[in-house]
Amino acid sequence: MSLNLLFEPFQYGFMVRAFVGVGLVAVVAAAIGTFVVLKGLAFMGDAIAHTAFTGIAIGLLLGVSIHLGALVFALLTALGVVFLTRVSNVRNDTALAILFTGVFALGIVLLASSPGFVGDLNSLLLGSVLAIQAEEIALIAVFALVLLGVLGVFFSHFVLISFDPVGAEAAGFPVAVFQSLLLALIAVAIVISIQAVGVVLVVALLITPAATAGLLTRRLKPQIFLSSLVGLASSLIGLYISYFFGAPPGATVVLVATMFFAVVLIVQKLRRAGGRAC
Amino acid sequence: MTAELALDIQNLSSGYQDQVVLEGVSWQVPRGTLAAVIGPNGGGKSTLLKTAVGLLQPFSYQALALFGQTPREGRRRVAYLPQREEVDWAFPISVLEVVLQGRLVRLGWRGRLRREDYAASREALRFFGLDNLEEVQIGSLSGGQRQRVFLARALVQEADLILLDEPAAGLDAKAQHELADLLVSLRDAGKTIIAATHDLDCLTECFDQVLALNRRVFAVGDPAQVLTEETMVKLFARHFPKVGSAGEVIVHES
To answer: I need a labelling partner for A274 at 20 to 30 A (CA). Which of A193, A211, B149, B236 fits?
Structure first.
């Protein structure tokens, strides 16, 4: 009986597609998310997700591809921030926050004031993985492969510019190019993850599994592997919970990821405390 | 005539945004010199190093050259060791992986790390007595060991000019002496070394040349000429008494 229950969701095509789609983006987001955590770019990721939303809104209104709109806005945000930080030499959180919330607000106004698109607002904000189509999964898979490929080819480069950008640049290494490329990869990961969990929660797919893995290992490659594993497990368990309790899947996926993080953190603290007591 | 200059600066002004930190600075460092830049914090030591390798754009200069080339061209021959606070020591990277980065910088972005790069990196670690630590995460090393890992990275990068920003910071007296010995041996191997430091004690004595810098050049020459009571008091003005890295108090009085 319990086995039947386990396989029950897979009777439905939309659930199978949801499992594949959310699993795919969770793995990719968690892998690239390791760099987001290491470089403290969570806020940046949030900014990219919010401006990508406006890209989607404009794509919808103009009747062009929403993925293209999202990608253009996400990349513009990522590269714009690289440019600004290099010109002004400081990380200006305030300026970034003003800019991205402004752009985000514009997107909401555009969508909400366009009859026929109001319904999309909710699904964009909270995700709509249950409505994902086979073609969209194919598109996500292509982006995911490209992203992981670039990450693999230039892995040492990304480690170099993340660990010691000053020393690398002083020696003439094209740090800005690879910083931009890394942020572009992050932007792509965010764009393909928006449908799964929505604009508001997408940053959790990037950082929560990576931060959990960061608690478990101090080596980068194992951290990326563990992060992907936690991301995958969170998305699958989260979808199950969503199916049986009727909760929005994006939220349950993020909730499970957060639980993983909390459990690992607590177990570690208890172990350390126990170790001290002995 | 004179030996080739590793660093040639004439009448340089530099700083951040609209804040001028250095004014009218001139300094020539011949190849194979072990040189120190000394001066109080905020006196422009880091600004000088960063401008020299093109990390900062100067406001004006009459000459600014690395090995007779512009900073952009010449910096391929430069290894820069950042200040301790500028490095994320918790980064999940091993000692060997840090040294390998020197090879990657050497090869350029099109390069791929090969077996010989690993061999060269392990050899450099052996040279600095770190060969049993190659799998260790960088942050779990002592200050002196971390310094040596970065020197090993500079070595495999085959840099001709090694710049160190506050290399003695956080090192105890013993580690400072070991560092000084290593710098001397690198100099003897033909490298040019420039270290910015506000620690005067053991480091500066073994240097060939010292630049006393506080926004402008106060003195330049060999340590005996520069490290005089008179210059030090002028240079450090209100920065006395000073607590050394080992907790000792140094008081300079005129």
So the answer is: A211
